[in-house]
Design brief:
alpha/beta, 6 helices
């Protein structure tokens, strides 16, 4: 039997061509701060991955919170160090199952234990790498990474718009939980974007008490297509 190919035309044909052409389509997942991430944020990110036919995943940083050792005030009634780490690993396992291969730009909360070890004079050789501690062996933990002339980093020291201007290249950042935007900088001979992705943080958790008087978190994620198109998707709450 010969293969049956549906005949498409007009907008349907254009949509099919856009979905099937060979290009990088990156889902950018916002700060998780596990184990203090909203339960339904994972399903939302999976839906956005499918909606835009993504073929790559990048976590923008702060996949764990480490409230037990935070530089903010810690809750004396909160989880202990070992308990929080175990719970964070358990929660991250869901993300690892959904996105078994991903890049992770290391955030300020991710590196808290390493910073405390450094301050305590402990050499690096005593410390395990992130992928081993968090039981995510196929995740690639990096300070920053570039795809299709777009720079991805967690965002300490400035939001995406500042980074884009300073680096003179398209930039994607997280870190600032209350912001989600795409802004374009256009010159005579260039065009770059700055994308500040949202987050998945549960604003009612005790770990976010330091931000109770701030604006509410922008719950969402982003998609970057071929380095040319940047899309922010906010979750309906």
């Amino acid at each position: 039997m010969s293969e049956i190919r549906p005949r498409l035309n007009g907008n349907k044909k254009i949509a099919y061509q856009n979905l099937t052409k060979d290009e990088r389509r990156i889902l950018v997942i916002g700060d998780l701060h596990e184990p203090f991430c909203l339960d339904n944020y994972l399903d939302f990110c999976k839906d956005i991955y499918a909606k835009y036919n993504c073929n790559q995943t990048l976590f923008i940083g702060d996949v764990i919170d480490q409230h037990f050792s935070s530089f903010h005030e810690t809750d004396p009634d909160g989880l202990g160090a070992g308990q929080e780490l175990d719970y964070a690993i358990e929660r991250l396992a869901r993300w690892y199952k959904a996105f078994p291969k991903a890049d992770v730009t290391i955030g300020n909360h991710d590196r808290i234990a390493y910073r405390k070890a450094f301050s305590g004079g402990i050499p690096k050789r005593w410390l395990k790498p992130f992928e081993e501690v968090l039981e995510t062996p196929n995740w690639n933990y990096v300070e920053s990474i570039e795809y299709d002339d777009v720079l991805y980093e967690h965002g300490e020291g400035g939001q995406a718009f500042t980074k884009a201007k300073n680096n003179m290249c398209s930039s994607v950042c997280g870190h600032t939980h209350t912001e989600a935007y795409v802004r374009w900088l256009v010159g005579k001979k260039f065009r770059i974007f700055a994308m500040q992705v949202g987050c998945g943080v549960d604003w009612e958790s005790y770990a976010t008490a330091y931000a109770r008087n701030f604006k509410k978190q922008a719950i969402g994620c982003g998609v970057v297509i071929n380095g040319d198109v940047a899309i922010n998707e906010l979750m309906i709450l």
